Structures are given as C-alpha cells and as structure tokens.
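Exercise 7.
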Amino acid sequence: MTTSRGGRPREFDRATALERALVLFWDRGYEATSIADLTAAMGVGPPSLYAAFGSKRALFDEVLEVYCEVYRAFMVRAFSEEPTFRRGLERLLREAAAAYTRPDRPPGCLAVSAAVNCGSPEVEQSLRALRTSGVDALERAIRAAIRASELPEDADARSLAVFTGVVLQGMAQQARDGASRRELESTAMIAFRAWPWPASRS
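Solution. The predicted structure, written as tokens, is:
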C-alpha cells in the first residue's frame, strides 16, 4: 500500500484488489495461491490484506461473491431473459463456451479450477455448494418447463440437470486444456440436441 504526503496509508481500491485476487485464484486455484502472490498482485502488504479481509479464506469468500455477480451471472440471465426454456438452455450452453474462453480472463470456471488440489475442506465445501446450487436451479427450471409442456411429462428433471452440470464442468476443464470457443460450442450443441425435446418443437 502506498502512503499519502501526510504519511497516512492511502486507501486501496477494494474492487480492483478483489478483481486481482479473483484472477489469481481462478488461474492457480485456492491452494496454490499464496499470501505473497495475493499481496503482490493486489498492491498491499500482508497487514493491510488481513486488516481489510481478515484471512485468505475470507478474501476467497468475497472473491466468490464477485465471481458469481460478474462472471457467472450469464447462467441466471439465460433463463430470465429468454421466452422459453429451450432458448434459455441453448443460450446458457453457448454463453458458457464464450465465458470459459474469454481472452482477458483465465480459461474455464473458477468454481471448478479453484477446487483442484484444494487442502481446505471448508473451501471445497463452498465450491461444491456453488456447483450444486447451479444444478438445483436448473432442475427447478426443468420442472417448470415440464409443467409448461416444453418437455415431456416423463422427462427426468434431476438427471437432465446433472447431465447439464457435467457438460458445463467438462467444458470448463476442456477450456483449461486449450479447447477453443468454437470447439466448446460444438460440444454444447451436441449436448443440447440430446435433450428429449417434443418433436413438434424441434
């Protein structure tokens, strides 16, 4: 942290500091990101980091909030802004391909990559809960689509939700391994066509 002319510490931009920490956690994972890495990227000393955020774990919790609000929000918008479930699902899958291959951010999904080799059971639980919440929300949307006759009455909502979660997590990992947006979109559309859409709505 820099100092002002009067010798007092100059306040750092919290939003900027959180974004820099987010990129580190996203790129390296929770366990491999050290306090030294964080202070260097955020432009603060260890005492200032602890004073502002409390701990590495507390900082990570704030980072997750920012990630959900900024980088994961497309998952909610896909269904809230489209008139049908079918169009919402297609948008979700296509936008996931774009989100996981953004040139200005690490590839993949923080909720997946931050869990790699994580030695903190609490952090693992937080990330697991985040991923599970997405599957649960999708299951609710699927059940609503079944009630609206957009999907067959005998469609297995839970299995379809889990299937989509597996596809999204697999796409995220493939992005980490270098898959392009076009490759992920192609995979996404194969998954989309595998759904039990009524023939009349094909």
